[in-house]
Structure prediction request, 175 residues.
Amino acid sequence: MAQNSRRKPNILVTGTPGTGKTTTSSQLAEATQLRHINVSELVKEKKLHDGYDRETDAYVINEDLLCDEIEDMMEEGGNIVDYHDCEFFPERWFDRVVVLQTNNTVLYDRLKNRGYEEAKLMNNIECEIFQVLLEEAQGSYPEDVVMALKSDSTDDLARNVEALTDWVRSWCPMS
Ligand code: DAT
Prediction:
């Protein structure tokens, strides 16, 4: 199915863990009635993984199984996909790729509160400092599709949800 045959847009919300993907996606889904696909939850629930990796303290996602699982929904449109990796999805799936970014000190506190141990915490802070997700998104999707949004405060959160809601409402299938 061609990209512009979707009746509603698909949005990828990506960023380092803790930048606010799930919070932003769920508020955006509520405001727009788009479907929130929390990839980490889906992978666990439907066992779309190749086991648990103790070293990274995370499931080893099976990208093919995941893409097969959500393909029909993505072709139909109207999805907000929430995940900290963005490189393996088909480029044609997304009309907008949002990269959330958070100040290091703020992110450190959020991940500490989440109970991350030091090595995992520092890995993620480094990932944020080097803007890894932004570079990956820019390397995987067209320039005009990718946007970086600051997600430090609840004001940022409200502003981002509002701006994205406006974008969804003005999105036109033939654009
Ligand atoms: P992610 O899905 O990127 O891992 P999250 O949505 O679970 O992040 O948010 C992590 C924590 O930070 C959670 O307690 C909610 C809070 N949070 C997220 N975005 C925020 C923002 N813009 N301002 C203040 N707190 C935020």
